[in-house]
Write a structure and sequence with these properties.
Largest sheet: 2 strands, antiparallel
CATH architecture of the largest domain: Up-down Bundle
Radius of gyration: 23 Å
Structural class: mainly alpha
CATH superfamily of the largest domain: GntR ligand-binding domain-like
Number of helices: 11
Shape: elongated
Bound molecules: zinc ion
Number of domains: 2
Amino acid sequence: MTTAEGWEPVQRLRTYEQVMSQIEERILDGRLKAGDHLPSERDLAQLLGVSRPSLRESLRVLEALGVVDIRRGGGADGGAMLVGTPGPGFVNLLKLQLALGHFSATDVLETRVALETWSCSEAAYRSTDADHAELAEILDLMDDPLIETKEFNRLDTAFHVRIAESTGNALTSHLMGSLRTAINRQMIEAYEGLADWRATAQVVRHEHRTILESIKKRDATEAARFVSLHIHDFYKTGNVGGTYPTG
Ligand SMILES: [Zn+2]
């Protein structure tokens, strides 16, 4: 006897979802890899039994996600190419999600502290002299007394992301770079909202030098401690996102 239990409504997948799931399956089982070209739009539409406009829509979604590159596929009939390096898909999504309030300022703060304390302590072990020289160069540029908030924040981002890169962990530096780019506007607004941003900039400069010194001395504990203080300090002073809990 049949009962109402155990039955689930059949999922009606949209065309682009079905096309995506076939491509995903091929990537997961190794039949498709980064750098490969998909069949031409005409051939692929025929193989999948979908119209060319439907296929084009699917490819646009995959392009926005950073999975395929249509332009580098060699024209309309050259077939989209599977991308081998992370593009701006993640950062664009994250930016919108933050703007829509999916994550709070505290979520961002805590995630930054987690990623950056790990990065700084790992950088103390793994970074090279060349990394230190590049980090020092960024800090020297930040010392420009006439620097404006936008450029100061760009270099600040570059400094933090460069530390993450020096760990050799590509995913951590991608996550950090994406997160910093996504909160770019809030960071600049926080600087501009300060009564005396140049005074804060002096504190930031000093904190950066302390972080770099600990990394150079291979002192992982200090490097992690200093970066955590640095991030917390700025969120308090700048009231980033306007929702940082006091105390
Ligand atoms: Zn900083």
